[in-house]
Design a protein that fits this description.
The complex is a heterodimer. The N and C termini of chain A lie far apart (56 Å). Chain A is globular. By secondary structure, chain A is an alpha+beta fold. In chain A, the strands form 4 sheets. Chain A has a 4-stranded mixed beta sheet with strand order 8-1-10-9. Chain A has a two-stranded antiparallel sheet with strand order 2-3. Chain A has one domain: Alpha-Beta Plaits (2-Layer Sandwich), CATH 3.30.70.20. The longest helix of chain A is centred in the last third of the chain and has 21 residues. Chain A is built from 8 helices and 10 strands. Chain B is mainly α. Chain B has a single domain, classed as Formate dehydrogenase/DMSO reductase fold (Up-down Bundle). A two-stranded antiparallel sheet of chain B has the order 1-2. Chain B is globular and about 70 Å long. Classes of the chains: A alpha+beta, B mainly alpha. At the A-B interface, helix 1, strand 2, helix 3, helix 4 and strand 6 of A face strand 2, helix 1, helix 2, helix 3 and helix 4 of B.
């Protein structure tokens, strides 16, 4: 973890969670156990309903049962469907092997969150639960967090504004779109009221489990042991390791194949891990540009 | 079915060939700003040294060109925001972890200083205030010319993030070349020597850095040979090289050659910024660029 100390050193304060003092809550998150996901999409629906996420078009993709395709401004849970010619158990023999993987993806609420680091307005913040939330009254839609996220979770909402939005004075400032970024809040409002997030509440098989991250990690390791004993093919935890490139996920997974099969990056690293080195490069390049300009004067006026 | 893809010796599966990281949501304003911001930063430096050297015409021209670029730049950035009316939220915090936050402050300081200096130069009053403004503008120049490289590198876009050692150099050189060319256009050859030499040297460094960057990026850098980014990179190379050659060979004797050469350099620098911008989209769109380097990194870590 020493890699990240440098960032805290230059900012002079820790990531944010620790600054809540007495108001700090245990870190809350999700353990999504995809081995018992049945692909019902109740999580997607419950999330949309509770968070009043607008409908953004209905399409048939032809990609198994997945018509949501990806996480974005208007999909904060996304159930992936993968049809495979692979056996479910390691000891299954024969050519007719077939399994159907389903997994409900969500914002990872990273320990070291690139979106939060790069946000220039302070709109993205770390809550007292250790989760990462966009403050929609601050976000000005600069879009920096969108390519900064190693999982492609955040996106800008491209829907018309509500009619009761204030009229704007200048044409330059009068864009008609919502224009802000949106993502999973881990139902910050529900947590405040002592409730579990909508998706976890709606999940009929407890594939989505909500709780304290430390406790969820223990539970996940026990579940993995059990699946391995039973000879499940490809079972692994994803995002449970506090020493990975983002310092561990607040919302992590039990997968049955390589992460990229589910559209997840195999070894995500928070981009700001390299920022001290990048600022150093910038300083050298800036100094060289300055010296170079001075050198151009050596040849005289003509 | 998930698709199996092979790239540089590593086999990977993908989720229906879909991207993993999101493409940027930035609009054409952003590469245009990279160009105008570069001119503003480079001109601040050119102006500062010209003042010290006592080249008054060069100093004045660089000041006005830079100030104009400093007006256009924030307008472009504000126009790109999803909620432009909230642009002042950029100044509600200062975050070293966000190159965009740092850049907003640099641009704010640079724009304020260069425009104050230009206005006072025009009306010929308040000399001490003008000197202070010129000094501040000069100090902001080099950071303004280079920070955008780190702004792009500080993302999960493979072709940008993996080029974090080169992008600030590439953009710094491009800024110097653009500023030199933009200033030389408005001056007779007798007065524009440093500007022309800056343009030529900037182009030379930039072409070298671009080559080195693509070489080091390897597989991830192949987007610079493909589609829009490839076309723009080739156009940039031809235009900047031709422009620099014209400036070096005939810029001293012929005003026409100096103007034509400068225009070519400017067109080439704009193409370069667009090429880097488009390369980011292409890099995000293809999951191979995200997955394969990560898989290889993971395998290397495991084999240790």
């Amino acid at each position: 973890m020493s890699d990240f100390a440098t960032l805290t050193d230059i900012t002079g304060h820790p990531d944010g969670w620790e600054t809540y003092d007495a108001d700090q809550q245990p870190r809350m998150g999700f353990f999504t156990d995809t081995s018992i996901c049945i692909g019902c999409k109740a999580c997607e629906v419950a999330c949309k309903e509770w968070n009043v996420i607008p409908e953004d078009g209905l399409v048939w993709t032809g990609d198994s049962y997945d018509n949501t395709s990806e996480l974005g401004a208007n999909s904060w849970r996304h159930v992936a469907f993968i049809e495979q010619r692979k056996p479910l158990r390691q000891d299954d023999e024969g050519d007719d092997a077939l399994r159907w993987l389903m997994s409900s993806d969500v914002c990872k609420h990273c320990t070291h969150a690139a979106c939060l680091d790069v946000c220039p307005t302070g709109s993205l913040l770390r809550t007292e639960y250790g989760t990462v939330v966009v403050q929609e009254d601050i976000c000005n839609g600069c879009g920096y967090c969108v390519p900064a996220c190693p999982f492609g979770v955040l996106d800008k909402r491209h829907l018309p504004r509500k009619p009761d939005d204030e009229p704007l004075a200048l044409p330059l400032l009068g864009k008609k779109e919502d224009g802000r970024v949106w993502k999973c809040t881990l139902c910050y409002d529900r947590l405040k009221g002592g409730h579990e997030p909508a998706c976890a509440k709606a999940c009929p098989t407890d594939s989505i489990q909500f709780g304290e991250v430390d406790e969820l990690r223990d539970r996940a390791h026990k579940r993995l042991d059990k699946l391995e004993q039973n000879g499940w093919n490809g079972a692994r935890l994803y995002g449970d390791d506090p020493d990975d490139g983002v310092g561990g996920f607040g919302a992590f997974f039990l997968l049955l194949d390589e992460p990229e099969v589910y559209g997840l990056p195999p070894d995500p690293v928070v981009t700001t891990k390299h920022l001290p080195e990048m600022w150093k490069t910038t300083a050298f390049a800036a100094a060289a540009t300055l010296v170079g300009t001075a050198v151009a004067f050596l040849g005289g006026r003509e | 079915m998930s698709e199996s893809i092979t790239g540089v010796g590593t086999e990977m599966q993908s989720y229906y060939g879909r991207p993993i990281v999101k493409e940027p949501v930035w609009q054409p304003e952003i590469p245009t700003y990279l160009f105008t911001g570069g001119i503003a930063g480079g001109c601040s430096l050119l102006h500062g040294f010209a003042r010290v050297a006592g080249y008054e015409r060069l100093a004045k021209t660089a000041l006005y060109v830079g100030a104009a670029a400093d007006v256009v730049s924030p307008a472009l950035l504000i126009s790109d925001l999803g909620r432009p009316e909230r642009f002042l939220n950029m100044l509600r915090v200062f975050k070293v972890t966000s190159p965009m936050s740092v850049g907003s402050w640099i641009l704010f300081v640079s724009g304020g200083a260069s425009n104050t200096a230009a206005a006072l130069e025009l009306v010929g009053r308040l000399r001490p205030v003008k000197w202070v403004a010129e000094l501040v503008s000069f100090a902001a120049g080099a950071p303004l010319a280079t920070y955008t490289g780190t702004l792009f590198a500080d993302t999960a876009i493979p072709v940008w993030h993996e080029a974090r050692k080169e992008l600030p150099w590439l953009f710094g050189a491009s800024a110097a070349a653009s500023a030199g060319a933009a200033t030389a256009i408005f001056l007779p050859p007798k007065e524009s020597g440093p500007a022309r030499r800056l343009a030529v040297a900037g182009v030379a460094v930039e072409l070298g850095v671009m080559e080195a960057m693509q070489h080091r990026l390897g597989f991830v850098g192949e987007v610079y040979k493909k589609e829009a980014a490839g076309k723009l990179a080739r156009a940039s190379k031809v235009l900047t090289a031709a422009g620099a050659a014209a400036l070096a060979a005939r810029g001293r004797r012929s005003r026409g050659a100096a103007v034509a050469g400068s225009a070519l350099v400017l067109a080439g620098e704009l193409a370069l910024r667009w090429s880097v911008f488009r390369a980011g989209f292409q890099s995000a769109r293809d999951p191979r660029y995200t997955v394969i380097p990560q898989k290889q990194r993971k395998q290397q870590a495991q084999s240790k």
